[in-house]
Amino acid sequence: MFGSALLFLFVSQLVTGVCLAVYYVPSPQTAHVTLAYIIKDVAGGAFLRSLHSYGSSAMVVVLVLHFLQTFLYGSYKGKRELLWIAGGVLSLLILGMTFTGFLLRWDLRAYFAGSVGTNIAGDVPLVGNWLLRMLRGGEVMGALTLSRFYVLHVFLLPGAIITFVAVHVFLFRKAGAAGPMREDPVQPRLPTEPFYPYQVIIDMGFVLVVMGIIGMLAYFVPVTLGPVADPANSIYLPRPEWYYLPFFQWLKFWDGAKTVVGVVIIPAILIILVFLLPFLDRGRERRPWKRPIPVGSVLIVLIGLIGLGVQSRLDDSRDPTTASKIAQQDLEEAKFLRAPFEPLAPLLASAAAPAALTGPALHGQSLFQSHNCSSCHGVGGTGGFGPALTHISAKFSPAQLAALIKTPNAAMKARGMTPLSVSAADLTALVTYVNSLGTVSAVSTTAVAPTGSPPGPVGVTASAPADTSSAPPAATAPPVTTPASAAVGRPANSQTQRGEALFAARGCTACHGIGGVGTTTGPALMAFSKSVTPAALTTLLEHPNRKMQSGGMPATNMSAADMSALVAYLQHLGGPVAATSIAAAPGAKPTTTSPGGQVEAAVPPSDSITGGVGVIASPRSMSVLELRGRSVFAAHSCATCHGANGIRGTWAAPALANTGKNFPPALLTTLLQHPTARMRQGGMPPVALSADELNALVAYVAFISASKPASTPTPR
Asked: Is the pTM of this model over 0.70?
C-alpha cells in the first residue's frame, strides 16, 4: 500500500502544482509577491499551497516506509534487480523535487538554504564548478537560478518521474508480487491474488488516511512564508526542511580538504551500495532476522540519520543566541503571513526612477550605516529582523519619525530598538535619508563605482552618480567617518578605502559588525592578518568552508580588483594597533608613553576615544592596563552583545557605562567568572581568562564608567 500511496501523492502534487502555477511567476521580482498573493488573496490559496507543501513531506515519509518494507521483506530478491534500481532512481527524483520546489518560495529561508545546498554541488571533484554554474546559471543566486529550478521542478523532474513510474509498474507487473517474507523469491509456491477488490480497498483506505492527515495540517497549521529573499541580509540563519536536517548537521563535521570525502564520497558510496543491494545479497533468505549484516547496516544508517537530525535541533535550542535568532525569524514569518497583501505595483514604481542622494540625505545615509541600523532594517532599509523602511514616509511625518527615533514606542523597544542620541542636525539628516528610501532604489544598492573609479556611497548606483552641486563645501560638510579606519588607527590608502566601501556595500557589517568588530552572527575580523594570508583569505571569501556556510556566509563573487581591495581592507583591520581601536582624527598627536606608564593615545582634539560606533569622552588617557583590557574586550567579542567599546549596548545586553560604578572590582570579577542566572539567561557565558587579562578587563570597564558618551568629533 505504500507504493500505491506514493503514486497517489504524486498525482496530488501534480494537481495542486498546476493550480499554483496558474498564479506563480518565476522571477526574483515576482516569485515571492505572487506566492504571497496566492496565500493572502486567492480563495483557498493558503489551503492549496499548504496541501502542496505538506504533500512533499508526506512523499518523503511514505518513500522511507516503502523502502523499509521492501528491504525488510527482501522483496528485491528473485530477478527484481531492475525493479529495485528503478525504485532507487525514483527516490532520488523525489528528493530532487523537494529541493527544487523549496527555492521557489524565494523568501529568506528558501534563498539561503538553497545557497548552502547548491554550494554542495561545487564540492564535486572535477565537475563541481560546472555543476554549480549550471544550477545557479552563474556565480551567484539570481533570476537564472530561479528560472532553472522552476524548469526542473515543473517540467524535467515530473517528466522523469512519470517515465520511471511507468517503468517501475511495468517491471513490477512482469516480476510479480514478492509475497510474504516466507515465500521463495525465485520459485514462489503460493498462488497469486487479484488486485481487485481486496488490495484496492486497502490502498484506498490508506490513501484516505494520509490525505486526511495532510488536509487537517493544511487547514489548522498552514505553511508559513517569510519576507522576500534579500542577498544582502547576511545575519539570517538558514535552516533546511526537516528531511534535510541530518545532511545539514553532517556538513558541520567536514571542513577544508576533507569536505569532498564527507560531502561527496561517503554519500555517493552509500547510494551506490543501495543500488547494488540486489547484486550483493544474492541468497534466497528473506526473513530479516536471518540477514543480520544488511539489516544491521541499514539500521545503523537509519539511526545515524535520525540522530543527526535530532542533534541539529538540539544544537539550535541549546545555544541561546541561535535559539533567539531562529525564534525571531519564525516571528518574522508569522508577522509577514498576518500582514495584508502588498501588490507589486508600488515596488515597481519606486524602482523605476531611482534617485541619487545629495546633501543631508547623503549624510543621513552615513549615519544609518555608522549606527548599524542595517543590522536590523537591512541594507538600504529593505527590511531584516526589523521592518522595511522603504515606504515609511507614507506612514509618519518627518516630525513623528524624528520623535520615534529619539523615543521609540513600546512595540519598537520590544523588538530591540534603542533610543538614538544624536545632534539635531544629524537627526534631521537621518530622517531625510529614511524618507528618501521611498524613492531611492534601495533593493539594488551598489556601494562602489566601477573598477578604476572612486567608491561611491552606499545606496547610490554606479549608473547614477550623486549630484554634489547642492552639497555643502568640504570644509563645512559633516564628516563621513569610516569606522573601520578609525578602529585601525593607521592611515588607509585608496585600496583599503575602496575595500571598506565594498565591505559596507556587501552587507558584511550586518554579520561582522562595523569595522569587523564581530556580532552574534559573525566573528571579529581584526586578527586575520596574523593567521590568514591574503591568498588564503581570498580563497575563503570565494569558497567559504562548511562551517562558514552553515553560519550563513555566502560565496563572495566580484572582480579581481574588487577582491584585492576587500582583502587589503581586511588585512588592514589586523594592523598593529587594531586591538586598541583608538581613532586618530586629523590633527591628532601620535601615540606616546609617558614616564608614569600612561598611554597618551592618538586622540582627536576633543579628547574623545572612538571605535566602531561607540564614542566616549575621556577625562584622562587610558593606562597600559586599561588599554590592554580594551583589547581583551575586543578580542573576546564582548562588543557582540554590549556594543562597540561597551558604551551603547545592544538589544541583547546592556551598556557597561555604569557597571564600574555599581560593582566594585572584586564583585565584577566574580560576576564575570560566575554570571548570575539572569545573565546566563541573556546569553552571558562564564569568562575564562587569566588573572592578568581579567584584571585588565575589569580596569577597562571601570574606565568606561568614569567616562561619558559623546558625539563623533568634527575634525578642526
From this structure: no
